[in-house]
Amino acid sequence: MKELSLHVLDIAQNSITADATLVEIEIVEDTKKDILTITVKDNGKGMSEDFLKKVRDPFTTTRTTRPVGMGISLFESAAKSTGGQLLISSALGVGTTVTAEFVHSHIDRQPIGNMADTFLTIINTKPEIDYVYTHKFNGAEFTVDTREIKNVLMEVDITTPDVLVWLKENIEQSLNDIMGGKQ
Amino acid sequence: MKSLAELEAIRNKTINAMNIRKDGENGIRIVVGMATCGIAAGARDTLNAISEELAKRNVSHATVSQTGCIGMCRLEPIGEVLEPGKEKVTYVKVDREKAVRIVNEHIINNKPVVEYTIGAVEK
To answer: Which helix (H) or strand (E) element contains residue A12?
Structure first.
């Protein structure tokens, strides 16, 4: 993975596979405290305590084609290589929250990358469920919530190309705004 | 944040065009592998390039969707073209440029790009 947004995409796909109906992504950047945290929270089926204990192991997976699953372990190693950590909490029937903490200024911290493309891609993965993306940068923040967008669109599909273009521009512009042009 | 009024204008414009796109169901399906291996190899860009090109060329007889790991991680990003009544065509190591060419030559002009297929790459 070359950028953190690709990890977000990968972890959010896990939420979708776990039958979530709401996936919430939050990225918090605090350059004064020198912290970057990325949280992917879902209301999917959750993991048992046993599975949670071994989920960081690359030889743990729910896929049936092959006994390897790299997603969580790659995300964890990206966080750890900056001196950060990966936290996972989960309960059966409630959902799962994955939080990665990074040292913001660490030389090995991957760039956040293209979050607009990641958000559009997960919407396309399963348009019928809802997604929230919040990004905070030193106190400024913005949120995009597909429930609000669907309320305006009504019978029009959220995956309509014109809607996706609007959404992409919206995210890019909002990120630029909260970072004061420093993106 | 851009205004939701803009979104409403898009909605109104789209409603008029909606009936035209309904024939996608029996058309060509393009499937991109989006498991960890695909994502790490750049499948997000591949998928977006295909969607953008389909929209740009106003293609209504093909849709693009995502799938999991196709099983040949070293050849990702992989894109499969599934057309009713025809054999499946598997394209490998599909980057942005290849994706655009596949849409134009295979989907629009009905001529598969043989050199990008798994058969040509894996010789």
So the answer is: helix A4-17
How many domains does one find in chain B?
1
Cα separation, A129 vs A17, whole angstroms:
12
Q: Is B72 a member of any domain?
A: yes
ipTM score for this prediction:
0.78
Fold of A4-178: Heat Shock Protein 90 (3.30.565)
Domain-embedded: residue B17: no
- DSSP result, B20-77: GGGGGGGSEEEEEE-SHHHHHHTHHHHHHHHHHHHHHTT--SEEEEEES--S-GGG-S
| Yes or no, beta carbons of A1 and B14 under 8 Å apart | no
Instruction: Write out the residue range of the structural domain in which residue B64 sits.
Output: 22-121
pLDDT digits 0-9 by tens, B96-106 = 999 999 999 99
In the predicted model, residues of chain A with pLDDT beneath 70 are 64-66, 181-183
Residue type, B103: V
Contact of B45 with chain A, judged by CB distance below 8 Å, is answered with yes
pLDDT at residue number A160: 85
Query: Cα separation of A57 and B6, whole Å?
Result: 46
Residues 161-180 of A with CB under 8 A from B: 161-164, 166, 169-170, 173-174
Q: Cβ atoms within 10 A of the Cβ of B25, count?
A: 7
Are A137 and A178 a contacting pair, CB within 8 Å?
Answer: yes
